[in-house]
Fold this sequence. Notes:
Blueprint: H1 4-16, E1 21-23, E2 30-34, H2 38-48, E3 57-59, H3 63-69, H4 74-83, E4 88-93, E5 110-114, H5 119-128, E6 132-133, H6 148-155, E7 161-162, E8 175-180, E9 183-188, H7 194-201, E10 206-207, E11 228-230, E12 241-244, E13 254-255, H8 262-278, E14 283-286, H9 295-306
Residues 135-136, 144, 217 line the site of magnesium ion (MG).
Amino acid sequence: MTSLEDRLDEAVRVLRDGGLVAFPTETVYGLGADATSAEAVARIYAAKGRPAFNPLIAHVGTLDAARREAVFDARALALAERFWPGPLTLVLPRAATGTVCDLACAGLHSIALRLPAHPLARALIERAGRPIAAPSANRSGRLSPTSAEAVHAELGARIDLLLDGGDCTIGLESTIVACAENRVTLLRAGGLPRETLESALGTVLETAEHGRVSAPGMLASHYAPNARLRLAAAEPAAGEAYLDFGGRIAHPDLDLSPSGDLNEAAANLYSFLRRLDARGAATIAVAPIPNTGLGLAINDRLRRAAAPRPSDEGAT
Ligand code: TXA
Ligand code: MG
């Protein structure tokens, strides 16, 4: 048996050699590479089959490391101090002292930074001694993995090393907020509820303009399982699998949270969609989910998963 220490040392060697390491965070698993090396980052895009214009989140181990990469205004600093480590990503102007390569930022003048809370993620970043660029560890456009098994099913041999940290406790990607020109804008709803951010800031967050793709996680069809989805379904139609919430019907295929707990539902969302996919469901009918707290992010992901897909229009 290799010890966790040995595993981490090996992971750091892989990263320093420009390889890919999948690792757990409290939100979802990340597909990590040395953020300072364009060659290493290019491998991420290749493994995911991701459009190269999508910028990646750089994961850092300390606030000081983050401040080397980006310019923090007073609000960004307040958010970082309050919510890091945790499920919050800040999009900020890049700093002149930054070390993250242009490819990871897709050539933008801004950079997405996150300080994750998961102990394995933190140990990896700390030992690597540099920022780690990591998108979710799935192929482009598909569900984010929330377990090591799901990472393996998505990417298998395309990664050099997989650190197994069990199931992700939050199960939804981080909330992404941009701070610029004295404005704080919500780019992606996620594991940190909007209400929590708003009460910390004492203001209402602006929402990214509809149709302007400032975070490609905002593409209409994204986070998709193989099955079709039918949303806000009171009950299943003939032949549909039913993904319940709050115990609406007697024998659902699965229930995201029989007690109606939105945090539990968020943690189960992707793994349950994967399970229904694996059972060969052609259509998954999903119960209505309340639009508060993490329900906002859950409904956002469900809408994208249900949206018409590029393949529907004959694209390849
Ligand atoms: O929870 C998470 O955020 C996970 C874990 C692994 O940290 N990561 C994740 O990464 O979800 P990814 O690449 O799947 O989603 C990151 C999103 C993308 O939609 C990307 O377009 C956006 O962040 N993003 C990155 N840099 C940006 C920037 N400079 N401006 C606007 N959006 C940016
Ligand atoms: Mg993703």
